């Protein structure tokens, strides 16, 4: 009972802390514009006459750009404060939405998505590194879970709001709204007190080129495969839903986000209380079931139901997998966070590109079954490789 009380008091104190609130609001406004693009960007690109392969590239290239940018951001965070890196990312993100209004050809939009990847990587990596640095190790998973609720809330309202804007007013008001949201995120980042960059000594674990933390790669593959699946869903589920006669695919993402919010609010302490390996395995199994069901779903109620299942299975995956990977690597600095997130972004980038090639050959339903197979491979990788490797190290 004493432990539960101290955990509750810690949570309240942490959530009400000034810098936590401003970082939370910064992430909220930043990702609100980001999530508004989930269902709207594929539709916008379709309206411009791009093929499925081109849409897959334009959706996925942001993840590829973010991948390399996170590695750079991890190195930059060794020299500059998280606050300054967040402000840089927010300002660059603002300019990309202005570019969306000005450019409509493939290669200019390709460049815009590249810069969106850079800005997202800078802001997200710096924000997470800031939260990890101020969280007590015993409550790290819980703190991360509460912080990323900001992005979860925006996932619930961003897609619906984005679809509402394009249905009522068109794409230009959508991009202008996202510009304003990005400026708000810049303001909230500016309000942070900020911290000095941490000076690392020679005992810091070895880093590869672009400040790559090699020790965190193995556990990060689990997040890579999960992001691969979700990246493909983000790129092509809206088009599949429209093909099935559903006018607003945003309800799927809202259902997902609702389950994430409920789970993290009510069970925030679960990640730090229960075995992280079992939590990750449960999440991966649920994701596989969701993809199998999605391949046979054609109506809005079924899409909402599958979104709820996917959300339930993803509730604790990110905080558990990130905390587990940081423990596995024995490091929680900006470089470790950047490496973990960059590998996840690689999955987000490859998912739309590869599935964009598969869809014309097989159709959407077979693609979802392929995603279920990837979930099964991920389950096997974590159970029979990552866990066994950790077990051998402990012996």
List keywords for this structure.
disordered N terminus; 16 helices; Growth Hormone, Chain: A; 395 residues; mainly alpha; two-stranded antiparallel ribbon
Describe the secondary-structure layout.
Blueprint: H1 2-15, H2 18-47, H3 52-76, H4 82-102, H5 106-134, H6 140-147, H7 149-168, H8 171-191, E1 207-208, E2 212-213, H9 217-243, H10 250-266, H11 270-273, H12 276-294, H13 300-314, H14 317-329, H15 334-362, H16 364-394
Antiparallel strand pairs: 1-2
Helix pairs in contact: 2-5, 2-7, 2-8, 2-9, 3-5, 3-9, 3-15, 4-5, 4-8, 5-15, 6-14, 7-10, 9-14, 9-15, 9-16, 10-13, 12-13, 12-14, 12-16, 15-16
Could you give a short description of this structure?
The chain is an all-alpha fold and 395 residues long. The chain has helices at 2-15, 18-47, 52-76, 82-102, 106-134, 140-147, 149-168, 171-191, 217-243, 250-266, 270-273, 276-294, 300-314, 317-329, 334-362, 364-394; strands at 207-208, 212-213.
Characterize the structure shown.
- 82% of the residues lie in helices and 1% in strands.
- It has helices at 2-15, 18-47, 52-76, 82-102, 106-134, 140-147, 149-168, 171-191, 217-243, 250-266, 270-273, 276-294, 300-314, 317-329, 334-362, 364-394, and strands at 207-208, 212-213.
- The chain has a single domain (14-190, 210-394), classed as MFS general substrate transporter like domains (Growth Hormone, Chain: A, Up-down Bundle).
- Helix 2 (18-47) packs antiparallel against helix 8, helix 4 (82-102) packs antiparallel against helix 8 (171-191) and helix 15 (334-362) runs antiparallel to helix 16 (364-394).
- It is globular, with a radius of gyration of 20 Å.
- It has 16 helices and two strands.
- A hairpin with a 3-residue loop joins strand 1 (207-208) and strand 2.
- The protein has a two-stranded antiparallel ribbon with strand order 1-2.
- By secondary structure, the chain is mainly α.
